[in-house]
Design goal:
single chain, alpha+beta, 6 strands
């Protein structure tokens, strides 16, 4: 039992040491608007510039899940469920700029669900090269917001974004 407690204590110490003292930024986690803005900022960067993974970790609950869905080259649906660290390990270093174009938010007590329609580009002001919808689940612990999970799917032929999830003209 003592050995187990020592191992747990060591694990917590190492986890705390791995955290970046600069984060979370108060403006990132104080409001739903702030955490969703930061959610897009941390993955956007020019080619060769590292993504803001330490800041991204500060937005996510330690047990958060990142889930990617889509269809493979044969049209068969797939899902990839991973930790945030696994997601970061698979991130490329190419130019990628993602931003929100529409949002639908539902909140009850300390939980919120955000449908966030996005567009992505290869340059900050270039034409949109793709769109999709992020489904983001969040939790408020009484002091701040945490992202607990997100899942997305991309727009493609046969899978258009419904008008209710697009900005009004």
């Amino acid at each position: 039992m003592i050995r187990l407690l020592l191992l747990l204590s060591l694990g917590l110490s190492l986890s705390a040491a791995a955290q970046d003292a600069r984060y979370p930024l108060p403006e990132d986690v104080a409001t739903l608007d702030g955490i969703i803005r930061a959610y897009y900022e941390v993955v956007s960067a020019p080619a060769g510039v590292p993504r803001q993974t330490a800041r991204d970790h500060s937005l996510h609950h330690p047990d958060a899940r990142a889930i990617i869905t889509g269809v493979d080259s044969t049209g068969r649906p797939f899902i990839r469920n991973m930790t945030l660290a696994e997601f970061h390990d698979g991130m490329g270093t190419g130019a990628f700029f993602e931003h929100e174009i529409h949002r639908e938010t539902q909140r009850f007590g300390n939980v919120a669900h955000v449908w966030s329609t996005y567009a992505w580009r290869s340059t900050p002001d270039g034409p949109a090269e793709g769109r999709g919808i992020n489904s983001i689940q969040l939790y408020h612990d009484g002091a701040r917001w945490w992202i607990t999970a997100w899942i997305y799917d991309s727009e493609r032929p046969g899978n258009p974004i419904p008008p209710a999830f697009l900005p009004e003209d």
